[in-house]
Request: fold
Amino acid sequence: MIGFRNDYGQGAHPDVLRALCDTNLVRSKGYGIDAFCDDAADKIRLEFACPNAAVHFLPGGTLTNLTALSAFLRPYEAVITAHSGHIAVHEAGAIEATGHRLLSLPSSDGKITPTDIAVACAEHGDEHMVIPRLVYISNSTELGTVYSLAELTALRACCDAHHLYLYMDGARLAHALTSEANDVSPAQIASLTDAFYIGGTKNGAMFGEALFITNAALMPHFRHAMKQRGAMLAKSHLMGVQFATLFTDKLYFRLGSYANALAARLQSELLSMGIEFQTLSPTNLIFPILDNAVVAALAKNYDFEIWCPMGNRTMIRLVTGWASTDAEVDKLVADLRRML
Amino acid sequence: MIGFRNDYGQGAHPDVLRALCDTNLVRSKGYGIDAFCDDAADKIRLEFACPNAAVHFLPGGTLTNLTALSAFLRPYEAVITAHSGHIAVHEAGAIEATGHRLLSLPSSDGKITPTDIAVACAEHGDEHMVIPRLVYISNSTELGTVYSLAELTALRACCDAHHLYLYMDGARLAHALTSEANDVSPAQIASLTDAFYIGGTKNGAMFGEALFITNAALMPHFRHAMKQRGAMLAKSHLMGVQFATLFTDKLYFRLGSYANALAARLQSELLSMGIEFQTLSPTNLIFPILDNAVVAALAKNYDFEIWCPMGNRTMIRLVTGWASTDAEVDKLVADLRRML
Amino acid sequence: MIGFRNDYGQGAHPDVLRALCDTNLVRSKGYGIDAFCDDAADKIRLEFACPNAAVHFLPGGTLTNLTALSAFLRPYEAVITAHSGHIAVHEAGAIEATGHRLLSLPSSDGKITPTDIAVACAEHGDEHMVIPRLVYISNSTELGTVYSLAELTALRACCDAHHLYLYMDGARLAHALTSEANDVSPAQIASLTDAFYIGGTKNGAMFGEALFITNAALMPHFRHAMKQRGAMLAKSHLMGVQFATLFTDKLYFRLGSYANALAARLQSELLSMGIEFQTLSPTNLIFPILDNAVVAALAKNYDFEIWCPMGNRTMIRLVTGWASTDAEVDKLVADLRRML
Amino acid sequence: MIGFRNDYGQGAHPDVLRALCDTNLVRSKGYGIDAFCDDAADKIRLEFACPNAAVHFLPGGTLTNLTALSAFLRPYEAVITAHSGHIAVHEAGAIEATGHRLLSLPSSDGKITPTDIAVACAEHGDEHMVIPRLVYISNSTELGTVYSLAELTALRACCDAHHLYLYMDGARLAHALTSEANDVSPAQIASLTDAFYIGGTKNGAMFGEALFITNAALMPHFRHAMKQRGAMLAKSHLMGVQFATLFTDKLYFRLGSYANALAARLQSELLSMGIEFQTLSPTNLIFPILDNAVVAALAKNYDFEIWCPMGNRTMIRLVTGWASTDAEVDKLVADLRRML
Reply:
């Protein structure tokens, strides 16, 4: 089986693994109070040009989202998200389990707009309804798209106008920021959001995400919130080791760029064969539409996700990652050419 | 600094680390549906002689406790625990955050008794009060003590009589089961409890715990509960790799036994110097009482936890782990002899 | 100001008030364990032909919904509702505050269909998503419509097929069951749902709703759930007094019928003037569409709710209740005729 | 059966009932936005000499406590209470169900002290533990005792020193403030606490409590919190009617004083017969200790609560209320004299 199912199916990038091995017997106090975490946090703050940000390391994306959002909001405050937002679909009600309503907005490309947000706010006007208080966006989105600087700037203005926090799920932030479609700098990510997380799981870490909080009002007692949700690992220093490596010599971005390039080549080859796409993606997730017979044939040797049945055709999701290879892409292209 | 602060301050046991390196590029589907997790679960079921148990891998102890307890209980059901129970003190209200009251019982040695449980149940008799429904015990306890077979058997009978689940926090289960004071087999742990977890974090894993559910009524939909609480890591297969290693050739128990032996030697040497202990511990946590001046002197070269100030003396906690060495124990003994 | 804003703006129906006065000094043990509540529950069970139902009295509708749903569901289980469902709009996130996701379905008339439910279930197939477990319907709906016997029977079959509970919010059950459009008997309501509540607040009680649970699996420990959510009033016996009165000589249904008749007459008069309605309502809520100038003129002497701005016209909501009068309807009709 | 079981077993004081009857057909907009509530709130603010306080009406005590505390606290913040506090025993885990831990302190008389609070705060020093943030006291307490001005002033200072809110459960505030043991004015209650509630249920209202918030930081969005917890009744205006009556001509305090006087006479008569009390109570709850045979004999004609079995004696609770009579007290005294 050749894997195009996900970007988290393997262990750690060799550099990250080496760092874990090299530091394996160094003792830490535990719970993220250690030199490795300090070093990683400093490197991240430098990269995002935000020296006063709070940086925390948590072991997974869902846990990061639920810990952050439940810490930031009062009970009657709600989260605005796209229908396709990870928290709105694939986190098994994690945010609601902490007591908060999601207000989900339709979106064809995984992104939400100030106009839709303004409508949602206008519809929530009295105390019989929740108060929209935080906008959740993913970058890159669940459909592989990325927010432009103009879009993010407009979202920020909208959030300011409606007294909303802007939170970015950066499970694939590396892929967003190294996309050919991207025109946003890391520093702009930090200055335009109140908090975001930098995904490690899907970009070369063995485990872990780095939550980056820029809004000082959201910082107090966040470690209490982490502990309460089970998000503060005893061995947090291992995430420090990993993120310090990822943010040395821009490894984090190089890995994202590498995965994007493979996906771009694959998408381009498929297009050249006449394969259709509902939307083209500038990152490491691509969504070709194939005849069902082709999908079935492909599934014998390739592992991938069925995204959406469409009658006698099927949209599938192909994912490349830091561990994907040129040879895998070549073989898939060759096999598809033969099948069509 | 020589470390006696904890048993989770370093990375992974070399065998575990090697397994992670060796399998680093093997692809998995993610979320714990993979051959590594299957293999590890099989090995664990075999060790605990319970072929029908459900085994799940979660990244940390607090997360395991809160996910399990909130999945097992109805909203108005409460948890009985010792005052010193980890959930009652050091998890920042994690269980209450999922909506459940803790009923905590006094305990001088970290253990709770059927008598105290029966009293708690008798006091909760009508619908103005919560319903006690689950007994939480730690083995070994936060004070290093272990439950005997007679004690566990009596607790089981008490739980049956009062319609209570028995849940064991096994963050240090390896140390309990390999203690000289232990007379309980792994199979008996499984048969006397409804669920327990096998701690990896404090006994040689890089990260992760294995939750073991023996009561079939508690099994349905547990993966939904895990996902909702953020406890189902995308890279769960890495915990499969680790636990398969720990449960090969009884590595898990050898590591616990090793840590216990170091602590036993240390405790015995300290006793021989006339140092007092409030309770003697048969596992890897020991609690000597020292003059404050000695504590201060010790703190210059050693890292450990202040457990309890006692006027001009202080009870400290010394912890040994799989990564502690004979040389460290020897040096501490020598330094203490010189100071006294 | 003449009131067409709501059906809960006044005190209690005179018969109910008289019963409260007559029994004012009778002592009860409190918390709903008393002869008044027993009597009322018996009368209700008789009316709904379900001798084994559990009947509980709670002080308000939102509190009833949140107490029931949170008691019935496991944490990862979700509620299916219409977009317009009261819990989905006007309860300030009350259900989510107890930890449960709502899956809301579009609906033009306030009702949901088995087809839409089946789609929602089909979309929730793995442990990354919540499990749909309860269907919430209102009868009459927030738009004044009622479910037919055929519709309810189909919903029941759908719920059975998909392992779903069927819960009916009966804030205006009296109006539904006495509507000219209704073909469902009280006994059928009981046999087709797992639980429903009989609204008192909007139909002549001073305060209170009666929750009726027919599914035995949902009955255990419900009083614990009530107490925990603050839904078990010390003076619950007063709700017993009221509901015993409402279910004597069918007062409950006579009041609903009375309000419906006033609304029907009003709707018919407005139609005869050429006033448009998006949907005609067979119960006590009607939704005429008027020119904005007419709405503004009307608002000087009448109190009502703006339902939906529609450019230079506005949909308003007019509500009649047990305390509305023929004279009020006559005057509104006359005034409108003059304005048009 | 002559009732000494509780002070909430009957309907409303005749003056309150009359006001409800007199205003029965006056229309209100609902949800507490009406002239009755405004009037009642003004009268209450005047009585407690705090013109800027926020006043809200909620239908019951548990609901008031859980709504207020969950609105005031962040998820990881905890509540300090006496072991005997109503929220710690008799509310079925209502506060924990909103996600917050209770830290309960031993108390022989139902009151807690600055010393004990300071110890609890000192024990909660890092992010592995909850943050104590609110002190819950009852006045009068569950044991009938009252806080003196010196005690409340010391509590306030302690709360200020430890960054704690002070919240008073005033289910029986009338009885506290009219006790012979009381030296606190209503204005001092308001100035020494951050919020408290004025119990109606146990002192002559048909239903309802008035929450009084003096700390401006706790006021925003409180109506959202009420709606979300089901604590904002559609017919809230009826609580306005009742509280306006209770706070006219000091009826509220006259009723408390009346109940206290009956209890004082009863306690004094019992003492004169040689009956023992563990603590004497200056309010309307008294706790005599009687031989079991006497208790059994008494139970044939009197309704009361068994408070605490004490071997061959039993402590019972006798409660007087606004509806208790001199004749009832006389008869009990006479019957007890005969039995002893």
